[in-house]
Amino acid sequence: MIELPHSERVYSGHLACPGCGAVIAMRFLLKGLGERVIVVIPACCWSIIGGPYPNTALEVPVLHVPFETAGAVASGVRRALAAKGDDETTVVAWAGDGGTFDIGLQSLSGAAERDEDILYVCYDNEAYMNTGVQSSGATPRGTWTTTTPTSRPKQTRKKDIIQILAAHRIPYAATASIAYPEDLVHKVQKAARIRGTKFLHIYAPCPTGWKVPSEISVKLARMAVQCNSFPLYEVEDGVRYTLNQRPVGYLVDEYYKLQGRFKHLSPGDLERIQKEVDAQWKRMEKLSEG
Q1: Do the domain assignments include residue 50?
Q2: Beta strands 62-64 and 37-41, pairing class
Q3: Residue 92 falls within a domain, yes or no?
Q4: How far apart are CA 211 and CA 123, in angstroms?
Q5: Helices (H) and strands (E) in the chain, counts
Q6: What span, in angstroms and rounded, lies between the C-alpha atoms of 235 and 248?
Q7: In this predicted model, what pLDDT tens digit does every residue of 60-74 receive, in sequence order?
């Protein structure tokens, strides 16, 4: 187990809601990366959280860019630094699930195909939270959002973004959670040492969009891992899988029933979701054994 760095590069006074998982995720990311980092932020919650120009809640350079361009802009920043002889500064594309799974997927895929030397981080709160809790490609089946109301909640499964990136054969892709900071920081530091495209998928609950009390954000992030709804694992070179955390036996309904966005689900709905989660976990075990 690593010791968490004492440095803090997220200032107090940011504009996030209480219990915001995206702020906790950013805090641990910057603890892992240190001083030599540039953060590229497309339209997302963090466009607001950081504060209005010319202010920022981050003690590192920040570049705000259009929604769909995080992968492309981060690639350009990294190449510009290399042209100046700087091969040490880590360039991070920091995007929400909408700017990763959906609107930003094209530029992310292009960067991964070219194996650009960037770290792309998706903080996943499972909807377009900044613009009013609309459904995204990261929204799980059965979820209430403002575009999937309880009369017709989301009917499709969440995209498997790690598998999409692994199919590009990038050097490193991994999941992480704000509830496991040592694991998160370890993966950040590991990714920073690797040349080429790295991808981190960080689970970051949103109390507002999930309809939960702000004080249980970390608890929910932990339960998601422990019931296998969000397993922690790594994929190296697109083929080598490593599971980082074994489940403790929670059922999916224990996790779901704490959240207002799932209150409409029936026992049959939860049973179907449990079967999907169990099947996905068995698949992960087979991949890690191979």
Answers
A1: yes
A2: parallel
A3: yes
A4: 18
A5: 10, 8
A6: 22
A7: 999 999 999 999 999
